[in-house]
Amino acid sequence: MKPDSATPSRETRGRVAMLVDNGVKGDSRVQKAARSAAEAGWEVVLFGVSPTAKVQKWKLGAAEVRLIPKPAHLEPRRHDLRRPLLRRPLAYRSPQVARYRVQAAKAWRSDLAFRQAAAGAARAGYPGSSASASKPRLLLPRVGAKVVSKWVALRARETRLLQKRRAPLTAPLDRTVTAMWSKLLGERSWRRLMPNLWDFELAFAQHIDAFEPDLIHAHDFKMLGVGARAAVRARAKGRPVKLVWDAHEFVPGLPEYHGRWLPGHVAWEKEHAVFADAVITVSPSLAEMLKDGHGLGELPAVVLNAPVMRPSADELEGAPPVGDLRELCGIDDSTPLLAYVGGISPVRGVETIIEALPHLPEVHVALVSVTPGKMKAVATTQKLAGELGVADRVHFLPFVPHWQVPAFLAPADAAVSPLHHLTNHELALSNKFFEYSQARLPLIVSDIRTMADMVESTGQGEVFRAQDVEDFARATRAVLADPAKYEKAYDKSGLLESWTWEAQAKVIDGIYSRLLPDRPPLA
Q: pLDDT band at residue 374, thresholds of 50, 70 and 90?
C-alpha cells in the first residue's frame, strides 16, 4: 500500500501528524485537538486505525483524517504457535486446529450417513446411488469415524481447557516468565510481553514518514511509541521533528486484560516517554504522577476535556436537531429530572442511580449517549429498572454530538457522575464533568478524588460515597431542594470561560509555538 504524501492546499505554519489508536469518530478529545490545531494554521493529518483493510479519509474542519489498516499479525501469543506438550499433551496446537478437526470429523460421519442412505434409497427404487455404500462395506468406516470423533472431541476438550488456563497468563509458569523478562529486559521487555505493539508501528510508520511532519502529537500510550519511533527516524535523517505526548490515562492504573498486558504496556510507555519534547495530560494530579514516574524535566501541561462552546460552521451545518430533553422523556417542566451522559458499564455506577429511584419517588433520569436495545449493559439496566418498578422513570436516549451536549442537557434539574473508585477515575476530570458544568447544572458526584475535590471547592454540587445508594439519595434530595445554591458557583468570574475547549486549544497551540518558534501565527 503506497502511503500518501501531503501537498498543502493552503498556507500553513507547519505539518502536524496526530496519532490515535482508534477510529477517531468516538474520540471527542482527539477530534477537538485536530480541528482546533488546523484552525490555528497548522496543516494537520490525524492518523487513526481503519476498521477495514482500506485507507479511509475525510475532513474534520480544515484537518484531514486518515484511517490506516492495522493487521494484527503479531497478535497471537508465541505459546499459541507451539505444541502444548507440558501442560496439556493431548490438546491441539491451537483452537483453530481443534475447530477444523472437529468439523472434519463431523463431515466424515455425515458423508458416511449419506452414502448409506443413498444405497437404501436406490434399493427402494429411487434414482441415484452411492458407490461402495452397502452396509457391510460401510461398517468399518463408520466404526472408524465414531472412534476418531470421540478422540477428536477429547483433544478439542483438552484444547478448550488449555486455552482457559492460558488466557489470563497468571498461572505460576506464566508469572515466572513475565517476571523473568521484566527483570532481564526492563523497559525493553514489551518486545517479549506485548510484541503485538509492533503491529501499530509497522502499520503507521510509512504513512507518517511520507507526510514528513514538523511535529508529531501522539495521543495516549500506544501511539506514544509509534510517534517516538517516527520522530527518531526523522531526526536521524537531519529533520528536527518535535514530539508531543498527550497522556490521557495513567497506565499502571489500567485494568489488566491478562497477566502480561500491564507490565508490557508500562514498559512500552517507559521506553518511549524519554523522546517527548513536551507532555500534555488531562488533570493536575496526573501531571504530577507522570513527572515523577518518568523523571520528566518539567510538569506536563494540563489540557482539560472541556467542551466546544463555539462550534464551526461545518459542524452546525451537518448536525441534525437533537430535540428537547424533557419532551424526549415525555415529562413536563415541574418533574424532577436527573441527567447522565456516557456509556453504561459496571464501573460507571449507573446502577446506583437506578437503585436509588425507589427512594426518590418523583425523580426521573435521562441516560444519554447509549444505544437502546443494542448493548448488553443497556438491557441489564432496563431489566434492573423493571425489577425495581421504576422503568417508567428511566429514559434511554441516543448519543448527541459532543458540542451539542451542554445545550441538550440544560433543561434537566441536575447531572450525575456516579463513577466507582478506580485509579484513573480518581485522577481525571471527565468530559461529562465539563459538559454538565457548561449546562450550568448542579452536580451529584461520587467521592472519586479529583472530581469530588473540585465540586467541594467550587460549591457546584454534592458528593456522595461511591456505590452507596442511600447516600446518593441524600445528595440528590439536597440538590433538588435548593438548586439555586449550587448554580451560583457558575457565576464566578472566568470559571466557565476557562472550562471550554477554546481555552484549552490555546494551551496546545502555545506548546506547538514554543517547540517550533520559527512558525508564528499566520497574519
A: low
Residue 340 has what DSSP assignment? Answer: E
pTM: 0.87
Q: What radius of gyration, in Å, describes the C-alpha atoms of the chain?
A: 29
Do the bridges between strand 414-417 and strand 337-341 make them parallel or antiparallel, or are there none, so unpaired? parallel
The C-alpha cell that represents 431 in the structure block: 468530559
| Contact (Cβ atoms closer than 8 angstroms) between residue 423 and residue 395 | no
Which of the four pLDDT bands, split at 50, 70 and 90, describes residue 76?
low
pLDDT tens per residue across span 3-29: 776 555 568 999 999 999 999 988 999
DSSP state letters, 55-73: -EEEEETTEEEEEEE---T
Paired strand residues for 341:
368
Say if CB 326 and CB 337 are below 8 A apart: yes
Looking at residue 162, the DSSP 8-state letter turns out to be H
CB atoms within 10 A of CB 180: 12
Beta bridge partners of 356: none
Pairing of strands 63-69, 56-60: antiparallel
Region of residue 34 (phi > 0: left; psi between -120 and 50: alpha; otherwise: beta): alpha
CA dist., res. 109 & res. 284, Å (int): 66
* Maximum alpha-carbon separation in the chain: 96
Write out the three cell numbers for 20: 490515535
Q: What is the DSSP string of 271-302?
A: HHHTT-SEEEES-HHHHHHHHHHHT-SSPPEE
Long-range residue pairs from 283-286, CB within 8 A, at least 24 positions apart, any chain: 283/427, 283/428, 283/429, 283/450, 285/426, 285/427, 285/449, 285/450, 286/247, 286/250, 286/427, 286/428
Residues 16, 242 contacting (CB under 8 angstroms): no
Distance CA 247, CA 230 (A): 18
Non-local (6+) Cβ contacts of 136 within 8 A are: none
27 φ/ψ angles, rounded to the nearest 5 degrees: -115, 95
Cα dihedral 171→173→176→180 (10° resolution): -130
